[in-house]
Design goal:
By secondary structure, this protein is mainly β. Helices cover about 5% and strands about 55% of the residues. It has a single domain, classed as 7 Propeller (Methylamine Dehydrogenase, Chain H), CATH 2.130.10. A hairpin with a 5-residue loop joins β18 and β19.
């Protein structure tokens, strides 16, 4: 009898040890339709997106709040590229085809919020222009000249910049609300890879030097100057995230012995601090965003063909999460993230076996 009692006690202890593990596994797994896991933690859920003509390319995603986000890119029609614009109203994605040139060859780039307006860069049959959407509808601001490469665009109240190249080399076009001027950069700059701005008198850009290496530039309202940011040796810059608080974050890759590793540099208004989160070699940080939880979120190349993958970087701590499982998917590729109030929104592509990549969106929480 005592032997039987001992066997029962061991069985109870074993069951008690298994229960917490099962609960932890449930909390870590994503749900396909809901916004939380069984343990009450936010999870990624799939959002339907009206299909485009595959294969599609996603350019940008930006959000003003829970009820407004815009995603841009282009689709591959039978006769070439066509611009692609989607709007999130807080409940669903819909396609907008009301902007000038919606049915013409071209593509859409970065989205910016300027006061109550939405500004979007538009390559319209090779010529550049800025789409502006206000309460009265769409209008356009043509560029003063056509460039053969449009590298990047940014806009804030009182100022906008388009950077690219023509047959004479680097061009920095500046719009002050009434007209365009061409701005010069330091002599050592070969070309600009990206530009962003916080105000009309504070803009930042990252550039390749003629003498080699990458430089970070800053516009102070008068001229572009080398910001003297000490980037990691043998590195490049993918993107720069500016925040109203004055904080800035640079994301890029450093190459050592033929292998790259992701780095993040954060500026608190006085000094830069560099970290190397444990991300894969092929991580590209251009799509990163600051979440409502204060952490940086980065879309990743997933190690699971049927699920997207995201990294949450909070100081020295990095954790990972997966999107919902997608039946017959062979590649799920979130390209950009944006904060929508307390939630996080992603936009990208999904390739289902037997078809070309089309659009997908996911939301964390909400």
């Amino acid at each position: 009898m005592s032997g039987l009692r001992a066997l029962i006690v061991c069985f109870v202890i074993a069951c008690a040890a298994v229960v917490p593990s099962a609960a932890s596994a449930s909390a870590a797994s994503p749900t396909a339709t809901g916004g939380t896991t069984a343990a009450g933690k936010p999870s990624w859920s799939a959002l339907p997106v009206p299909a485009a003509a595959p294969p599609v390319t996603v350019s940008d995603l930006a959000a003003r709040g829970p009820g407004e986000a815009w995603a841009t890119g282009y689709e591959h029609a039978a006769d070439g590229l066509r611009p692609m614009l989607y709007r999130w109203d807080g409940k669903a994605w819909s396609r907008d085809v009301t902007f000038p040139g919606a049915g013409e060859p071209g593509w859409l780039g970065k989205v910016q919020f300027v006061g109550d307006e939405v500004w979007i860069f538009h390559n319209r049959e090779g010529a550049g222009e800025i789409l502006r959407r206000s309460a009265g509808g769409w209008s356009t601001v043509p560029l003063p000249q056509t460039l053969w490469v449009y590298q990047d665009f940014t806009a804030v109240p009182g100022g906008a910049w388009v950077v690219g190249e023509d047959d004479t080399g680097l061009k920095v076009l500046h719009y002050d609300g009434s007209g365009w001027t061409t701005q010069s950069t330091p002599d050592d700059v070969l070309f600009l890879m990206g530009v962003t701005a916080r105000t009309a008198t504070e803009a930042w850009a990252w550039a390749d030097r003629r003498t080699g290496g990458t430089a970070v530039l800053r516009w102070d309202g008068t001229s572009w100057r080398d910001a003297k940011v000490l980037l990691p040796s043998n590195s490049n810059v993918h993107t720069m995230l500016l925040e109203p608080s004055g904080r800035a974050t640079i994301g890029g890759s450093q190459y050592t012995d033929g292998v790259s590793r992701t780095y993040l540099m954060t500026f608190n208004g006085q000094t830069w601090h560099t970290t190397y989160p444990p991300l894969d070699d092929d991580t590209y940080t251009e799509g990163m965003a600051r979440g409502a939880d204060g952490a940086l979120w980065v879309p990743l190349v997933s190690d699971r063909a049927f699920q997207s993958k995201y990294a949450r970087v909070d100081g020295r701590r990095t954790t990972f999460s997966y999107g919902p499982e997608r039946t017959n998917a062979i590649d799920v590729d979130p390209r950009a993230l944006a904060r929508t109030g307390p939630s996080l929104l992603s936009f990208g592509t999904v390739e289902i076996y037997g078809s070309k990549p089309n659009l997908m969106s996911e939301r964390l929480g909400g």
